[in-house]
Amino acid sequence: MAEITISTADWERLKLKVERKYRELSEEDLAYQAGEEEQLIQRLMTRLKRNREYVVFTLKKGLVNIDNNRL
């Protein structure tokens, strides 16, 4: 069960932040549909070679201040 919920509108903005920070990620890595948070987390864990806590923390951090450009 994913520890985070991301709306489709928020994902569009968060995706830009993630793309800027991790330029090696492809469109496939960042593919997301509402309700598929778990699949997104798993893909990012694999591609970034990071643990679950790091990926979830990064996504949550981006959502907290969705209006600014920092991640």
From TrEMBL:
This is Uncharacterized protein. It comes from Arcticibacter pallidicorallinus.
